[in-house]
């Protein structure tokens, strides 16, 4: 049996050597084509790209990093990389998705979009044009110079591309729906190298697919976002005493079951710190019509006892800057997963009970990694209505997920790579436990929010078979050779 084993090892080593050779050649070709935009390990710009990932597990080391400065540069890079069908590459916007390989690649080529970070107000304040390397903080800072805003992220250091192509939940989602539905045009580089615009009247099939289809169709280089007038909003973080957990979750449930308030946004989290063995309930809530605050949030925000209350009326840019501080100051390893359900008077408390019962034992197994676990509840946005352009999520315009649905997210944050596999398995276990409870109450919903889905989940399947068929058809039409299916392994794939 020795010879067959040696033969297999030789094949494996040989395939890696060939792959590495192709990547090295591709990096060399990129240097020739884009001489000032390609960086190798040990170069300061290369290192800056790696350390810009907010989650430590995403800090992989590609053979080279490309930093395009224009859509034309992106076109050149894609044309070089697709030749030969051998070089694998990744595309990085803000790098905030924690799944390993989704926005970076080991020993391949990473296209880092951060130099395409321009933000421009256009068309008489109707549109804000945003480069695919921008962070949401950049967008809000520019928009607010004219008292404008857009449907965007609630944490300033989150990147624009992944957030929008995964759907995106904004401060205004209870009123205006998914953030991706605020996109009026995508500028995108196809696998052919062609630069096109996808919108409601041109390449409308691709326009819909990009709203939820992630990185399966090309490299988006610019987003044109619908702008609207907005002033300060009221909101922030409140930390409660441990005894407030059940009253807080009950108040949130009652709010969701009550009269719908389109200006009430945000989420609830219960955090377990293994080192301190403490459970801490937290609300991060916003009211987008501060003159009428607190609206439906009153019953939630009045929950006692409170340890700190950070609710303030402030510009959106201040809220997003505040939310970014923890992400920037303390990079960790992070994994998460999600599932969705219909709201009932008891279901939120039941999910919490299951999580609270098991999470101390789970984190105890990996105490050396100083883990923190979180359980988060949040409402879904409304689907497109009033004849607006469709997205890919499969909700009919007559459905009301913003009123009667929530998703739950389980998160582990920790400091040691040795715990990676264990926490991935724990996420799977928690998703099964949650979904068993949801099935008992007949409230489990198929939908899984892509931006909070784990790599072992299948959010595309959760959109429904009709939507998956549409996405696959669009991928075959605009990328017939499957460059973004085969050479871009990161992200959720259609094939």
From TrEMBL:
<dbReference type="InterPro" id="IPR006094">
    <property type="entry name" value="Oxid_FAD_bind_N"/>
</dbReference>
<dbReference type="GO" id="GO:0071949">
    <property type="term" value="F:FAD binding"/>
</dbReference>
<keyword id="KW-0274">FAD</keyword>
<keyword id="KW-0285">Flavoprotein</keyword>
<dbReference type="InterPro" id="IPR016169">
    <property type="entry name" value="FAD-bd_PCMH_sub2"/>
</dbReference>
<feature type="domain" description="FAD-binding PCMH-type">
    <location>
        <begin position="58"/>
        <end position="230"/>
    </location>
</feature>
<protein>
    <submittedName>
        <fullName>FAD-binding domain-containing protein</fullName>
    </submittedName>
</protein>
<comment type="similarity">
    <text>Belongs to the oxygen-dependent FAD-linked oxidoreductase family.</text>
</comment>
<dbReference type="InterPro" id="IPR016166">
    <property type="entry name" value="FAD-bd_PCMH"/>
</dbReference>
<dbReference type="GO" id="GO:0016491">
    <property type="term" value="F:oxidoreductase activity"/>
</dbReference>
<feature type="signal peptide">
    <location>
        <begin position="1"/>
        <end position="20"/>
    </location>
</feature>
<dbReference type="Pfam" id="PF01565">
    <property type="entry name" value="FAD_binding_4"/>
</dbReference>
<dbReference type="InterPro" id="IPR050416">
    <property type="entry name" value="FAD-linked_Oxidoreductase"/>
</dbReference>
<keyword id="KW-0560">Oxidoreductase</keyword>
<dbReference type="InterPro" id="IPR036318">
    <property type="entry name" value="FAD-bd_PCMH-like_sf"/>
</dbReference>
<keyword id="KW-0732">Signal</keyword>
């Amino acid at each position: 049996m020795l010879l067959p084993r040696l033969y297999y090892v030789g094949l494996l080593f040989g395939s890696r050597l060939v792959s590495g050779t192709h990547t090295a050649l591709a990096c060399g070709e990129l240097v020739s084509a884009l001489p000032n935009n390609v960086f190798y390990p040990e170069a300061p710009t290369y290192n800056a790209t790696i350390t810009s990932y907010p989650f430590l597990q995403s800090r992989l080391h590609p053979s080279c990093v490309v930093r395009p400065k224009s859509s034309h540069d992106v076109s050149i890079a894609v044309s070089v990389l697709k030749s030969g069908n051998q070089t694998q590459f990744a595309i990085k916007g803000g790098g905030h998705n924690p799944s390993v390989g989704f926005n970076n690649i080991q020993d391949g080529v990473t296209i880092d979009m951060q130099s395409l970070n321009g933000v421009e107000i256009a068309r008489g304040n109707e549109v804000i044009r945003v480069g695919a390397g921008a962070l949401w903080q950049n967008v809000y800072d520019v928009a607010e110079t004219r008292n404008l805003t857009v449907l965007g992220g609630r944490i300033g250091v989150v990147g624009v591309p992944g957030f929008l192509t995964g759907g995106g939940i904004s401060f205004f989602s209870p009123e205006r729906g998914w953030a991706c539905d605020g996109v009026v045009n995508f500028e995108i580089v196809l696998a052919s190298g062609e630069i096109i615009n996808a919108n409601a009247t041109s390449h409308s099939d691709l326009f819909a697919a990009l709203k939820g289809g992630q990185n399966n169709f090309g490299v988006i280089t610019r987003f044109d976002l619908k702008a609207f007038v907005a002033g300060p909003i009221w909101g922030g973080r409140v930390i409660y005493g441990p005894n407030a957990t059940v009253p807080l979750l009950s108040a949130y449930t009652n709010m969701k079951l009550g009269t719908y308030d389109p200006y009430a946004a945000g989420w609830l989290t219960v955090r377990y710190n293994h080192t301190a063995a403490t459970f801490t309930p937290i609300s991060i809530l916003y009211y987008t019509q501060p003159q009428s605050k607190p609206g439906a949030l009153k019953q939630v925000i009045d929950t006692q006892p409170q340890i700190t209350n950070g609710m303030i009326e402030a510009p959106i840019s201040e809220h997003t800057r505040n939310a970014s501080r923890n992400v920037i100051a303390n990079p960790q390893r992070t994994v998460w997963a999600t599932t969705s359900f219909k709201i009932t008077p008891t279901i939120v408390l039941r999910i919490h009970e299951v999580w609270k019962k098991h999470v101390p034992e789970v984190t105890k197994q990996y105490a050396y990694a100083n883990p923190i676990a979180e359980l988060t509840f949040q409402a879904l946005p409304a689907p497109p209505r009033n004849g607006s352009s469709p997205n890919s999520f499969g909700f009919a315009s007559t459905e009301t997920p913003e009123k009667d649905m929530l998703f739950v997210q389980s998160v582990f944050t920790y400091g040691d790579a040795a715990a990676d596999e264990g926490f991935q398995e724990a996420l799977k276990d928690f998703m099964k436990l949650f979904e068993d409870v949801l099935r008992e109450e007949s409230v489990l919903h198929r939908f899984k929010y892509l931006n909070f889905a784990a790599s072992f989940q299948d959010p595309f399947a959760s959109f429904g078979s009709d939507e998956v068929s549409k996405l696959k058809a669009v991928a075959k039409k605009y990328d017939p050779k499957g460059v973004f299916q085969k050479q871009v392994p990161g992200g959720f794939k259609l094939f």
